[in-house]
Amino acid sequence: MKKYVITTLNDKIAAVTFEEDKPSLINVYDTADCNRGGEADKGAVLLGNVYIGRVQNVVKNINSAFIEVAKDVVCYYSLTDNTQHHFLNRKNTDKVCQGDLMLVQVSKEAVKTKVPSLTSDISVTGNYIVMALDGKGEVAVSAKIKDNAFRKDIQSKLRPLIEKAEGRMSLVVRTAAYAASESEVLAEAEYMSGVEEAIHIKSTCRPAFTCLYKKEEQYICDIREGKLTSDDRIISDDKELLNTIVEHIPSAGKIVSLYDDKLLPLYKCYNLEKIINDALNPRVWLKSGAYLIIEPTEALTVIDVNTGKFDGNKKNREETFLKINLEAAGQICRQLKLRNISGIIIVDFINMENPENNTELISFLKAELSKDSVPSFFIEMTKLGLVEITRKKIKKPLHESFSHNF
Length: 406
What we know:
Layout: E1 2-9, E2 12-19, E3 22-30, E4 50-59, E5 64-70, E6 73-78, E7 101-108, E8 117-119, E9 123-125, E10 129-132, E11 139-141, H1 148-164, E12 170-173, H2 182-203, E13 211-213, H3 218-225, E14 233-236, H4 239-248, E15 256-258, H5 266-269, H6 272-280, E16 283-285, E17 291-296, E18 301-306, H7 317-339, E19 343-348, H8 355-369, E20 376-381, E21 386-391, H9 398-401
Parallel strand pairs: 1-14, 6-8, 11-12, 14-15, 18-19
Antiparallel strand pairs: 1-2, 2-3, 4-5, 4-7, 4-13, 5-6, 7-8, 9-10, 10-12, 16-17, 17-18, 19-21, 20-21
């Protein structure tokens, strides 16, 4: 059972996910990013939005282009990763050139000094359907759905929408569609068809910097990606937030709850300030008395494991160090998710002399990393005993969203 607690703190929307009554994920959203405006501006260039961008310049030595999607808002566009371009101006070549107008989608948020990244693989994800502007005109069904009769039936019913779009889009039926009613799935598919049609029509007549598709608020996307069940709960003291959630995720209507205790605010009831402050604290205590020091830098994040107050088997230091390292490995994986730490992570575990212990530690660490919904990988243990981990960069880390403690 998961519990989502959402409220407003210091002009930001804070959402803390609890699993087994322990905080497992903290997401922070700027309220400026949750506006309902229609014109692109610096504060509204959000993950998932689709824009008409203008190529500012092409940098050949890094095989990339920089595309302006709003006034003075320039984003990175890899020509290596993006090979199929959506040009909106007449061209005699398929090469990206300065001044070209292109249809692009924000694929990564700005992180530190890096500008947002763009993709030409434009898609919109719903509860049951994913719409992709890939020009393939296909209807695909999740491989997890094994019912052949269902697969054939839903494909035949979605095919007219593909024909209506003249093959400009493809539709992918998600696993959740199998448990939903046919009317819900078809209604969402119709909505996706409308989104595609609106993007297609507007892209032919709107100027550069137009936002053709504004993705729903990120907190909605994060809740959906959490794969809600009937046992989960969504709690907020903001009625508008709850209404927005139910509007976008109708199935959440049965699990939302409005918190209205005037004597004990929601953030105090769930101790949200302490939870966030602890997640901003470099030091993380382990149950054994050992502790971690987590230090983000411009290039990478360094994590140091210390024995601290650990009172284990002093006669067998190797066994003691293994216990600390295993506990630390589990907590490190939890902190990566909780703090949304990404990029390169270097961990200095306590040195162990027995190679078998290092093998056990690495095996355990790999297993814990595999549980993360964000791609996370063990790279290697260096000759100095340092462990290298990578975690895909998608959103800002927590310490950049909250630059100060409460």
